[in-house]
Amino acid sequence: MALRFYLQPLMATLFAVRDGLHDARSAKPAYFWSLLTDRAHRAERLHEGWKSISKVFVLAMMLDTVYQLLVLREFRPLETVFVAVALAMVPYLVFRGPVNRVARWLTRRRWSGSRRAA
Description:
single chain; mainly alpha; 4 helices
């Protein structure tokens, strides 16, 4: 069951990379920063983020529930939520914005480099 500590953050990170690249193509601001600063689009961005990470979050909760029942022989719902947030949502929030910024920087750099060559 220790695999969950690697698998869940990895899946959340992959979803964050996918969505960060999509944000860069759409010229959207960094995800977490926009949640804090852009009140007009906050609900839309939260919905978009939840839609993307919800499957990983539910999987994290299911895996932790199975772990608790098999190993601990009891169910601790608050612990399940805490573990799911820590292993699924935190990596998503941490990586989506920086991936967006790096992708935009690389795109600008590549575009400006190709203009110089022409």
